[in-house]
């Protein structure tokens, strides 16, 4: 009597009993020394990489081994290629191990690969292929221009990854919380993180970064660096010359301008007047040679961009040297006699120059001329003449008195 196969018996029994009987037969077969079985190993690979799918056999006796893809298309039949896809290669076929290799893996290759062993009862195991898609370096999108005093909205985008990447905004070593959104694109995910930050002039050029983390990168990360571009109105400052200016000197002014964008045109003008004919303008530099007092006035430097206008002014005051001559009476000294006599004037020359610390002040200087000695000599001469006159007059008066005394005596005789 021929034995009844389990498959025939299962067809004769109702479905619930057939399933129970099939399970019982498999258990009994596997506990016997000649039980055949197959095992499969799950595989994880990066997109674009190479995956090796292995089927391990137990007690293989030459039965048929079939490997199928997730769409249940037969790839290999007992080691023979069945599907025309050159990316699949049979690299090993032994009684213990069957291994195929898949190159240039894509997310569409993901799924369960069936290792089937056809014996009295079909055995199969599924090797699950998982494909990781690491993110590329994220991009930064700016919704609108960053203007001084306003806000800027920045969006960091990772368009494709599997599983979804994790994004993080950083500034000066500190994380900036962002609003995260995620979109399922079927096999992959796109992720974005948006931040809104207030900006001032000082924030122009500030460094930010968006970092993308992913299991496929391990401890590494993809980083996109970004520098803030803050627009603001210009500022203008005229750098004045050092010291005071006199007639004949040269004037050179520099107009220091900042702004974003930097103003291209700088305008020089003179308030309530036209620029001198000798004025030379070269961008931010303004020069006048051989100054005169006719150049006095207020000069203006102006600059503008799309976000505002600014100006600064400089008042030019040209000075000249002043020389003044005055007559000053001499100062009595202890060596002069206390007699009354006409004073002899002494000429002193006084020069007046401008004080560098105070351009409006005039400083008096005396020349060192020995007029005091000359005055003393003249006074001594005058004093000697006076003394001689006094003695002469006194002697004359005495002689006249003696003559008058003698006249009565002669008359008496």
UniProtKB/TrEMBL annotation:
One GO cellular component term: membrane
Gene3D superfamilies in UniProt: Immunoglobulins
Could you list this entry's UniProt keywords, alphabetically sorted.
Answer: Disulfide bond, Immunoglobulin domain, Membrane, Repeat, Signal, Transmembrane, Transmembrane helix
Top-level taxon of the source organism: Eukaryota
Q: Which SMART domains match?
A: IG, IGc2
UniProt GO MF annotations: vascular endothelial growth factor receptor 2 binding
Key word Transmembrane helix present in the record?
yes
A Pfam family hit: C2-set_2
Xref: SUPFAM superfamilies: Immunoglobulin
How would you describe this protein's topology in the membrane? Single-pass membrane protein
Q: Can you give the residue ranges of the Ig-like domain? A: 135-224, 234-317
Q: Does the keyword Cytoplasm apply?
A: no
Its Gene Ontology biological processes?
homophilic cell adhesion via plasma membrane adhesion molecules; regulation of Rac protein signal transduction; regulation of wound healing
The places in or outside the cell where this protein is found are: Membrane
Signal peptide stretch: 1-37
Membrane-spanning residues where? 371-397
Report the protein name in the record: Cell adhesion molecule 4
């Amino acid at each position: 009597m021929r034995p009844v196969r389990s498959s025939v018996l299962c067809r004769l029994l109702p479905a619930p009993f057939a399933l129970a009987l099939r399970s019982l037969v498999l258990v009994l077969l596997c506990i016997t020394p000649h039980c055949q079985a197959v095992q499969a190993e799950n595989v994880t690979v990066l997109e674009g990489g190479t995956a090796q799918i292995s089927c391990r056999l137990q007690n293989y006796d030459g039965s048929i081994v079939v490997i199928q893809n997730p769409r249940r298309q037969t790839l290999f039949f007992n080691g023979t290629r069945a599907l025309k896809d050159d990316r699949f290669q049979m690299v090993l076929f032994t009684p213990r191990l069957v291994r195929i290799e898949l190159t240039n893996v894509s997310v569409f290759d993901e799924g369960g690969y069936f290792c089937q062993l056809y014996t009295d009862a079909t055995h199969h195991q599924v090797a699950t292929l998982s494909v990781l898609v690491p993110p590329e370096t994220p991009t930064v999108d700016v919704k609108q221009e960053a203007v001084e005093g306003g806000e800027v909205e920045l969006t960091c985008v990772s368009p494709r990854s599997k599983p979804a990447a994790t994004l993080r905004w950083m500034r000066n070593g500190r994380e900036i919380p962002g609003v995260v959104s995620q979109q399922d694109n079927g096999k992959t995910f796109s992720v974005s993180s948006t931040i809104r930050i207030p900006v001032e002039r000082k924030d122009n050029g500030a460094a930010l970064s968006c970092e993308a983390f992913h299991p496929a990168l391990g401890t590494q990360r993809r980083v996109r660096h970004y520098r803030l571009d803050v627009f603001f109105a210009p500022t203008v400052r005229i750098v004045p010359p050092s010291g005071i200016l006199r007639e004949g000197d040269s004037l050179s002014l520099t107009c220091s301008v900042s702004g974003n964008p930097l103003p291209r045109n700088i305008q020089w003008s003179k308030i309530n007047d036209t620029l001198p004919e000798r004025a030379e303008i070269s961008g931010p530099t303004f020069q006048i040679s051989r100054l005169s007092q006719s150049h006095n006035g207020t000069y203006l430097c102006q600059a503008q961009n799309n976000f505002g206008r600014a100006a600064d002014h400089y008042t030019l005051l040209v000075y000249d040297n002043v020389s003044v001559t005055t007559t000053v009476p001499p100062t009595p000294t202890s060596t002069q006699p206390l007699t009354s006599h006409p004073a002899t004037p002494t000429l002193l020359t006084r020069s007046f120059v401008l004080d560098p610390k105070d351009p409006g002040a005039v400083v008096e200087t005396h020349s060192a001329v020995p007029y005091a000695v000359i005055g003393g000599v003249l006074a001594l001469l005058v004093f000697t003449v006076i003394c001689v006159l006094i003695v002469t007059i006194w002697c004359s008066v005495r002689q006249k008195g003696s003559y008058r005394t003698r006249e009565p005596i002669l008359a008496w005789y």
